[in-house]
């Protein structure tokens, strides 16, 4: 049974259908990468999974439990099992790094305080920011903020981690520090769905690549299959354009 | 001019000063109580106004209507309305209570829009990050949005309170013994109008100026990014 199965998920903005039935699945410990041109709906898939964009059809299975986001309770259940890292980090500006990491574990999950604190410190070590626990986000670089955001998501102990273009807003020299942190997570066996334009990185870490265009999945397969021998013209066209440089 | 100089020693006598001090205190107490309670209630109003869902539509409409109506009525009319309404319900309510209620009702409408603007100035992405962690709407507002909205809310809210110290002069119309009312009394006792109202003007200035200063201090402090503030925790975060 797949760890995450997205079944015919649909979403609309007004009358515009932005997700026209998205279906894919991954096993525990696998990484799926959603790729495609801007406006193809990649980020919307992640937003739909987190209940930030309401879905108009379909369902999502997480570790065998089916969720259709039809009630506030169902949305909460889905959010309880996943965590998301946004392109713009979205750290809480009024809180220190440590407060960002511990807010939801303490107030929402209501976990034991000493365990939450020591886990938060471990995660800051993992992303290489042990010395920034008391800093505010305006004292951190973009790359540091994004690594904090990654640690904040991990502090929720998600079954699935969603990464939404996490390096797109960063200066080029800061991209690698964030990618390195994600590589570590991949090595630890974290199940992830990532939206990324870093094709070399996708080829390296992803088990499955899902190519989307105009709210639909055009083609899915292993990185080698999609990048080297795409079956559809649309995918061949897209990859030939972005892999050249 | 001679007459004014003659009157000065008599005017600044103990009983008169006590009277002025008392009425200045009353003016300040009325304004602060009305504005503080009004400010608190305005938060509740804004929170209710932001209730999502179709079922909450009447609630949202009532909140919008309240703000729009009260912002379009002159304050003195609100005072008279409260006066006659309260006196119908409880004939022996004090004029001070009536004045505070009127100020409160008016302050709710004005500060609600200030608060709403402040909350809306916080990027939507902050709210989504909180939602994705399952924070409730109340938790998100109290822990994430409001602390970041203070820099936008505090300066105009204090400016409102400062200007309202002056506007409370209008409640002298219904006979509350506040500063302007006492001024009229002293003037009627034969003291020079220039002397009396000059002193009264000074009293108003002395009351509102420190509050303006406080507002400017807070505005500067709140505009400083958190990492650069000298003491990290500040009293209302």
UniProtKB/TrEMBL annotation, chain A:
<dbReference type="GO" id="GO:0005524">
    <property type="term" value="F:ATP binding"/>
</dbReference>
<dbReference type="GO" id="GO:0005886">
    <property type="term" value="C:plasma membrane"/>
</dbReference>
<keyword id="KW-0067">ATP-binding</keyword>
<dbReference type="GO" id="GO:0016887">
    <property type="term" value="F:ATP hydrolysis activity"/>
</dbReference>
<dbReference type="InterPro" id="IPR050086">
    <property type="entry name" value="MetN_ABC_transporter-like"/>
</dbReference>
<dbReference type="InterPro" id="IPR017871">
    <property type="entry name" value="ABC_transporter-like_CS"/>
</dbReference>
<keyword id="KW-1003">Cell membrane</keyword>
<dbReference type="InterPro" id="IPR003439">
    <property type="entry name" value="ABC_transporter-like_ATP-bd"/>
</dbReference>
<comment type="similarity">
    <text>Belongs to the ABC transporter superfamily.</text>
</comment>
<dbReference type="Pfam" id="PF00005">
    <property type="entry name" value="ABC_tran"/>
</dbReference>
<protein>
    <submittedName>
        <fullName>Amino acid ABC transporter ATP-binding protein</fullName>
    </submittedName>
</protein>
<dbReference type="InterPro" id="IPR030679">
    <property type="entry name" value="ABC_ATPase_HisP-typ"/>
</dbReference>
<keyword id="KW-0813">Transport</keyword>
<feature type="domain" description="ABC transporter">
    <location>
        <begin position="4"/>
        <end position="239"/>
    </location>
</feature>
<dbReference type="InterPro" id="IPR003593">
    <property type="entry name" value="AAA+_ATPase"/>
</dbReference>
<keyword id="KW-0547">Nucleotide-binding</keyword>
<keyword id="KW-0029">Amino-acid transport</keyword>
<keyword id="KW-0472">Membrane</keyword>
TrEMBL record, chain B:
<dbReference type="InterPro" id="IPR000515">
    <property type="entry name" value="MetI-like"/>
</dbReference>
<keyword id="KW-0029">Amino-acid transport</keyword>
<feature type="domain" description="ABC transmembrane type-1">
    <location>
        <begin position="20"/>
        <end position="215"/>
    </location>
</feature>
<dbReference type="Pfam" id="PF00528">
    <property type="entry name" value="BPD_transp_1"/>
</dbReference>
<dbReference type="GO" id="GO:0043190">
    <property type="term" value="C:ATP-binding cassette (ABC) transporter complex"/>
</dbReference>
<feature type="transmembrane region" description="Helical">
    <location>
        <begin position="69"/>
        <end position="89"/>
    </location>
</feature>
<dbReference type="InterPro" id="IPR043429">
    <property type="entry name" value="ArtM/GltK/GlnP/TcyL/YhdX-like"/>
</dbReference>
<feature type="transmembrane region" description="Helical">
    <location>
        <begin position="95"/>
        <end position="115"/>
    </location>
</feature>
<dbReference type="GO" id="GO:0022857">
    <property type="term" value="F:transmembrane transporter activity"/>
</dbReference>
<dbReference type="InterPro" id="IPR010065">
    <property type="entry name" value="AA_ABC_transptr_permease_3TM"/>
</dbReference>
<feature type="transmembrane region" description="Helical">
    <location>
        <begin position="191"/>
        <end position="211"/>
    </location>
</feature>
<keyword id="KW-1133">Transmembrane helix</keyword>
<keyword id="KW-0813">Transport</keyword>
<dbReference type="GO" id="GO:0006865">
    <property type="term" value="P:amino acid transport"/>
</dbReference>
<keyword id="KW-0472">Membrane</keyword>
<feature type="transmembrane region" description="Helical">
    <location>
        <begin position="144"/>
        <end position="165"/>
    </location>
</feature>
<keyword id="KW-1003">Cell membrane</keyword>
<keyword id="KW-0812">Transmembrane</keyword>
<comment type="similarity">
    <text>Belongs to the binding-protein-dependent transport system permease family. HisMQ subfamily.</text>
</comment>
<feature type="transmembrane region" description="Helical">
    <location>
        <begin position="24"/>
        <end position="48"/>
    </location>
</feature>
<protein>
    <submittedName>
        <fullName>Amino acid ABC transporter permease</fullName>
    </submittedName>
</protein>
